[in-house]
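ok new one. same drill as before - structure tokens go in, u give me an amino acid for every spot. 316 of them this time. try not to just spam alanines like last time pls lmao
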């Protein structure tokens, strides 16, 4: 199918409100600034770089063009000027993750490549580009490696592990889950076919391969509606919180429900059919990809780079 290139796509156009609200709470949680500074100072990003590039297989346009071309297509649709490096790691589950703020690396599991169609992989990669564009990567790297981070802090601070307090951990993990809702929207805008997006969620939930195609998107929608209809008593809320806290990501059914609601509200279609030639008075140009930005933007809507330093250099 021919997919539409989403020119001048701002992350705020599809950002989930739960993502923004939980990020605001996280950034106002005591200790976050010190934690992130320590993580950067002690080379945690480099540790992950060595881990992923040293233990996994890099995918290029020469060795596995079928997969690499899907990533290039995803970048074309959302206008990512620089294609991130792509690696494959051995994991039967359908997963993907991104690491590195300076050198961005996307890693796909073998389970994703073996179980998903090309269109579904496009949705999965679009999700990762969504994390990059929304500047999620640093906090998500910390959240995904909490045990390593805790040990690192304990070692380098002579046991002062309280840098990662329980309130900070809870705020971090809550935002981590909420950021997935934004990523799902980015994935759908990339693959531009709700059926592919929901079939990816169904497979990710653990449907055995021999039953792929048997559970329909309509089945998923009915289940999501049933889940949303569970009585929100105090006890119910506690059970949902406890169940969700044990999982690093929100329940698949909750993710599906949020995506259905976004589509039904007309927001997905509005973005696809909007006038892409947005007129605005540029404040400056992004230092990373030279894209014009407005005074209200903190991160580049094309590559996700922070614009504070670029604002000064871009003014006349």
């Amino acid at each position: 199918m021919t997919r539409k290139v989403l020119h001048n796509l701002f992350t705020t156009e599809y950002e989930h409100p739960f993502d923004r609200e939980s990020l605001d709470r996280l950034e106002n949680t005591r200790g976050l600034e010190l934690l992130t500074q320590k993580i950067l100072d002690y080379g945690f990003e480099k540790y992950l770089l060595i881990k992923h590039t040293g233990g996994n297989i890099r995918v290029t346009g020469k060795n596995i063009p079928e997969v690499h071309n899907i990533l290039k297509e995803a970048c074309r649709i959302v206008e990512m000027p620089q294609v991130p490096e792509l690696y494959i790691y051995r994991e039967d589950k359908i997963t993907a993750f991104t690491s590195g703020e300076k050198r961005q690396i996307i890693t796909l599991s073998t389970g994703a490549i073996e179980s998903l169609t090309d269109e579904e992989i496009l949705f999965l990669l679009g999700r990762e580009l969504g994390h990059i564009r929304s500047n999620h990567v640093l906090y998500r790297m910390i959240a995904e490696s909490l045990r390593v981070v805790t040990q690192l802090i304990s070692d380098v601070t002579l046991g002062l592990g309280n840098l990662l307090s329980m309130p900070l951990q809870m705020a971090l993990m809550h935002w981590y889950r909420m950021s997935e809702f934004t990523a799902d929207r980015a994935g759908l805008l990339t693959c531009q076919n709700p059926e592919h997006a929901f079939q990816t969620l169904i497979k990710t939930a653990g449907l055995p391969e021999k039953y792929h195609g048997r559970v329909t998107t309509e089945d998923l929608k009915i289940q999501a509606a049933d889940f949303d209809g569970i009585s929100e008593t105090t006890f119910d809320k506690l059970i949902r919180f406890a169940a969700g806290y044990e999982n690093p990501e929100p329940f698949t059914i909750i993710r599906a429900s949020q995506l259905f609601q976004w589509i039904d509200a007309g927001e997905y279609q509005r973005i696809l059919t909007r006038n892409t030639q947005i007129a605005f008075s540029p404040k400056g140009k992004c230092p990373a990809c030279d894209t014009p930005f407005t005074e209200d933007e903190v991160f580049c809507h094309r590559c996700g780079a922070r614009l504070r330093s670029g604002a000064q250099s871009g003014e006349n």
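The chain is about 55% helix and 5% strand. and btw Residues 309-316 have pLDDT under 50 and may be disordered.
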